[in-house]
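User: I'm preparing a small set of examples for a lab meeting where we compare how different chains pack in three dimensions. I only have the primary sequence for this one, and I'd like the structure in token form so I can line it up with the others. Please keep the answer compact; I'll paste it straight into my notes.
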Amino acid sequence: MSEYKCRFCPVCLGRGCIGQLPGMGGEGSSRNFILNCDEWKKIPYGNYVGSNAILRLAPMTGAEQNMGYADEKQYYFDMMKACAESNTAISIGDGTPDCKLLWGIEAVKSVGKKAAVFIKPYENKKILERMEWAEEISEYSGIDIDAFNIATMRNAAHLEKKTAENLREVQKFLAARNIPFVIKGIFTDEDLELVRELKPDVAFVSNHGGRVPTRTGSVAEFLSQHAEKIRKNCGEIWVDGGIRTKADFEKAQSYGVTNILLGRPYVTALCKKESFENILK
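Assistant: Understood. Below is the structure token output for the 281-residue chain.
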């Protein structure tokens, strides 16, 4: 019997799992996790017309450690099956050990789908190797630049702080394979400069679900302030962090977002064996 770490709050707003890292909580007493959830209600609607956003599963690994899932490998197959049954677009991530990515790839293949694949900011040789592993199932591929901010992960996996020059090599590698390039973790002025220099296919606004030590703030606030600037320098904007209702979804869409990613709500539904069909209230 699994002992899930999710508290199964009626609405996931970051307050039921404060201090739970590992677990479902956020860094620093969940301050950014809570802000992510709260501030979609506070920002105004944007004035972008023409965005038709879709829902996508956010890339999440560490099922045993963070979610309390009984079996790490089984999590990927259960999650991909639930996404396929609800026609939810998929993302997968990598982690330590390598089997987490390999199981994710295998699980995506098992449902006959493709996925957005996110790799940690290792040295480029290791990044490109992993992108080759996932090439067959890659709908998009990108670098999870904000993972560098997690000190334990950075030290264990030898992560690098990526520069535009580093990322340009990855961008060219993917362009040669006609796989759209994503920079995930846009949340600071420095990140905006990376987007300006590289002009990626996708700029993914995220603070890792409030799980990384970074500046205090929410993705809603950051998106509302910088969406116009980001749109000028990329093909698409994606966002995750604290989206819980259809109104939140519509507000994100009003800033020109094309993919809205959810993590914890899908994990909660999977653990409770609920359908993904009505994930937003």
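A couple of notes for your slides: The chain has a mean pLDDT of 95. The chain has one domain: 27-271.

User: Perfect, thanks.
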